[in-house]
Amino acid sequence: MTTSAARRPLIPQPPASVTALREAVAQIAPAALPAFTRELDLAADQSRQGSDLAPLQRFIAQWAVYVHIHRQPQLAERFRELEALADEGDASQARQAASGIGHILDEAHAALGWPRR
After folding, report:
1. pTM for this model (two decimals)
2. Which domain of life is it from (predicted)?
């Protein structure tokens, strides 16, 4: 794969809907589909119980950010490296990794036109 091809997103960013996000996850990270379904079920149950759409809105926002990151192979790899460092590094490395993760999440929210987390 060429450098320019590696920098291109695998797919366009889908609309922020359950159906579009499910299709995107199936394409770019099929192993994440069980988590997607579990979390969707939980959000739907919470929304029904509380007569509130906030849990579903949070679910959609979370998975839109996930797709935004994981449709870009280099960004997804960096995100995974930072997660591993946060889990396995010493306290200083964990703080730096958490800062890097926060930066990636902030950029994803901005790219999607949403307020920062």
Report:
1. 0.89
2. Bacteria
